[in-house]
Automatic annotation (TrEMBL):
GO terms for molecular function: 2 iron, 2 sulfur cluster binding; metal ion binding; oxidoreductase activity. This is (2Fe-2S)-binding protein. It comes from Haloechinothrix aidingensis. Residues 85-156 form the [2Fe-2S]-binding domain. PROSITE patterns: 2FE2S_FER_1 (PS00197). Coiled coil: none annotated.
């Protein structure tokens, strides 16, 4: 995306993944474009620019949003978390991220960031985690590769449920990670 410098711009300061970030944005700049283009945050993906696919999902002041539906200027003074905030300070994967890898819940990876943000929200909601609740909770995220079965398994495993090991992987292999 090329920034139109003839348009009105404003300075914004947003805490992104725990770090204060300041920049100039046009009034029309979408949050997803600012995160990716100005801050080089590669987690949120641009899948549809219409709020349908969930690949751009971020947490904005404790609420999940599709960042292609939010103007960057709207987030001025607020906090935004991308999937990068989910990993440990040392860069280690959290339990959900490990389960996504262990249960082959990603293939091309394009939707993964949005899936992780949505699943994190679901796991912290206090809702009982069942196959149905995971499918319902992940409804706003589209994956063209996996067919969702392994994503549901990964979320349930992250919740501590007994879930059969993925095809081609021994149960001990998953448990040892």
């Amino acid at each position: 995306m090329t920034i139109d410098h003839t348009a009105e711009t404003r300075e914004i300061t947003v805490t992104v993944d725990g770090r204060s970030e300041t920049g100039h944005v046009s009034d029309r700049t979408l949050l997803v474009h600012w995160l990716r283009d100005a801050l080089d945050k590669r987690g949120p993906k641009i899948g549809c620019d219409t709020g349908n696919c969930g690949a751009c999902t971020v947490r904005w002041d404790d609420t999940l949003v599709k960042s292609c539906m939010v103007l960057a200027a709207q987030a001025d003074g607020d906090e935004v978390e991308t999937a990068a905030a989910l990993e440990g300070e040392d860069g280690s994967l959290n339990r959900l991220q490990r389960c996504f890898a262990d249960y082959h819940a990603l293939q091309c990876g394009y939707c993964t960031s949005g899936m992780l943000m949505t699943a994190t929200d679901l796991l912290s909601s206090g809702e009982e985690i069942t196959e149905e609740s995971v499918r319902r909770g992940m409804k706003g995220n589209i994956c063209r590769c996996t067919g969702y079965h392994n994503i549901v398994k990964a979320v349930r495993a992250a919740a501590g449920q007994e879930v059969p090991a993925p095809h081609g992987c021994a149960a001990q292999e998953v448990e040892s990670r």
